[in-house]
Amino acid sequence: MKMMGQEEVIEVTHAVLFPLLGDVEHLADKNSIPPSLMRASVTIQGTTNAIVTVDCSADLARRLGAAMFSAEPSSLSDEEVGDALGEIANIIGGNIKALLPGPSRLGLPELQSEVMAPPSSVIILQAFECAGEPFRVCLASRGPD
Hints:
Layout: H1 6-21, E1 24-27, E2 37-46, E3 50-56, H2 58-69, H3 78-99, E4 104-106, E5 110-115, E6 122-130, E7 133-141
Antiparallel strand pairs: 1-6, 2-3, 2-4, 2-5, 3-7, 6-7
Helix pairs in contact: 1-3, 2-3
């Protein structure tokens, strides 16, 4: 896989999250993210075989959902919060896919409610702070299906 730079991941993530939250800072210390978070992921399959994961706290996922659905955070169901995090993974993954060699296709978002560690075969792992909450993006290689 052609190597992608950390700066591209930072730019893509800022472009997706800033309009929703307005407060996004990238963190140099990738270990500053708590170990237990919600995770959504999308696969990239084709010329490039990779997985893009996004991890964040349940509170941040709820705030992202509220911003996406123009609703009060407390009014969202757990399913809507999960859908919002999946859509964030889908948008970030799609933007990353566009920067990688193709042709490739993006898989459907998948959710995990409890996350202990980033995926193996990490290429880029970038931590962020969004409105005081942790957010992490990971690009990892994976074998062809």
